[in-house]
Every structure is written in structure tokens, then in C-alpha cells.
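G., the chain you wanted modeled:
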Amino acid sequence: MSWTGRRRAFRVLLAGRACIRVALQGHQPFMAAVRAVQETLAALHGGTSPRALTNQPSAALMKQVTREADYAAATRDYLGGAG
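Predicted structure as C-alpha cells:
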């Protein structure tokens, strides 16, 4: 069975059982992340100030990906505080 055929069979199998989708995007997203890390570390090693780094994520994105609201709620619940 070809790679395309296997992907389709896998998708059909999963969709028939659990109604889910699988996105096979290859290695490119990971490779882009590796390059971003390498460029950032090279800039820092070369003397660039952390504040001068470009392509920083927005505060809203960082709150989303770090699940800031969930963390704050869990911390509050664990410590027994309000607010």
C-alpha cells in the first residue's frame, strides 16, 4: 500500500471509530521550530540583548499556551485562597 493509501486508510479507520482527524504535516513545523531556537541562541551568544530579540509572541498568546488562567485557578485552589 502506498504512503497516501496508508494515510487515507488510517484516517478512515480513526474517523469510523472515534470521529477524529489526524493532521500529518511532516517534519517542517518541527524543523521551523529548531531553526527559530538556533537563531535565537546564536543572537544571544553574539551579544544581542534578550529585550532586543525579534519575533516575540504576544502576551495573549503566551497566556494561552501556558494556560495561565488554569494555573492561577489551580494555585488558588491548592492554597485555599480567593482571588
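Residues 3-49+57-79 form one domain.

Shout if anything looks off.
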